[in-house]
Design brief:
It is a single chain. Strands 6-5-4-3-2-1-7-8-9 form a nine-stranded mixed β-sheet. It is 41% helix and 13% strand. With 350 residues, it is an alpha/beta fold.
Length: 350
């Protein structure tokens, strides 16, 4: 099957905006497993003491075909670490024949030449590999494994050698912020793009984690993003648009995108476990309708956030509120501080 070039990504936002108009579930995320071979301190999935039953390969394929029949075009496979599934290719190879634009998320540590060689038969449109640092020491501090650094680098180089489309992403924490430039240089040396994010969310099961020891302060995070002129310009231009957005859900979640957990629950997104319906039991179309219903009905007429004078700088969303106190509208102090800091920093440039 002929794969699209990376230029297709330039069209994705516009295509998804059209999908919203037609209430089309154009983009899905399948979380194949919660299991992972590393133990990142800030992970919002890690340390679930009871792993839920995972869908079988055949069940994932039935679900995928039903989703395609209802309009799914883009599909991301993520985890945990998806390469831990011994039946990965039993899932992936049939998916590659469904005409989907496929993206794979992995930490890269389990990539072997044998795996990469097989993947070249039906390469994904993109593989995103997470880089957690530029040294063994930092990898040990974040993931609990120094060797994971070497294995990740080896996996990246194996994909490059085999011609697998790959890009890098990283999550900035207190443990790796001093290595951001080094990670960017590594990406340049490999000839790969790299994206960085720093906004860490709480565990979605509501349990405690080490996130407070990992996340940047609002001042540190906003200072970091303000150094990126492209990012700063995006926020300045989008400010009024954010203010004018209607409702509690201002992203595409539940409007053109959806997520499915390892046990087969369909939700608005990975961070918001609602409505937790099972498309394999009630059918994809009915499940999608219930996902949309959450977005369309769980919105207050007038929330505290909607009236806030820094709303245009804010990234608050129902998932953040839900992880805080199981509501969909409660302001999150950490996000409020970020918005205040953005307004202060960005106004200096106006």
């Amino acid at each position: 099957m002929t794969k699209l070039t990376t230029d297709y990504r330039l069209l994705v936002p516009e295509l998804l905006e059209h999908a919203i108009v037609y209430k089309q579930p154009a983009s899905g995320t399948f979380e194949l497993t919660n299991n992972c071979n590393i133990a990142c301190r800030m992970c919002y999935v890690r340390s679930c003491t009871e792993q839920s039953k995972e869908l079988s390969a055949s069940e994932w394929l039935i679900l995928a075909q039903d989703a395609v029949d209802n309009g799914m075009v883009f599909l991301t496979l993520t985890g945990g670490e998806i390469l831990l599934r011994p039946d990965f290719f039993e899932i992936y190879e049939p998916l590659s024949h469904m005409g989907l634009v496929l993206t794979i998320f992995t930490n890269g540590t389990l990539i072997t030449d044998e795996f990469a060689k097989r993947l070249t038969q039906y390469p994904p449109n993109l593989t995103k590999i997470t880089l957690y640092g530029a040294s063994r020491t930092t990898y040990k501090a974040i993931t609990g494994s120094a060797d994971a650094f070497n294995r990740c680098c080896s996996g990246i180089e194996t994909f490059i050698k085999r011609g697998i489309p790959v890009g890098l992403k990283t999550t900035i924490t207190q443990q790796n912020i001093d290595e951001l430039e080094s990670m960017q240089q590594m990406a340049r040396n490999w000839g790969l793009p790299i994206t960085a994010s720093w906004l860490l969310s709480d565990r979605r099961d509501g349990k405690s984690s080490e996130i407070e020891k990992c996340r940047l302060s609002p001042q540190e995070g906003v200072k970091l993003e303000s150094l990126d002129h492209t990012y700063k310009k995006k926020w300045l231009e989008a400010r009024k648009d954010f203010v004018l957005k209607n409702g509690n859900f201002y992203c595409r979640a539940g409007k053109a995108t959806f997520a499915v957990t390892p046990s087969g629950e369909m939700n608005v997104c990975l961070n918001l476990p609602l409505p937790a319906v099972h498309p394999l039991k009630i059918g994809f179309q009915k499940a999608w309708e219930l996902v949309q219903l959450v977005v369309e009905t769980e919105q207050p007429d007038e929330s505290v956030c909607d009236l806030c004078d820094v709303r245009g700088y804010c990234q608050i969303c129902p998932a953040w509120s839900y992880n805080l106190d199981r509501s969909l509208t409660t302001p999150v102090p950490y996000i409020c501080e970020i918005a205040q800091e953005r307004k202060k920093i960005h106004n200096k440039g106006i």
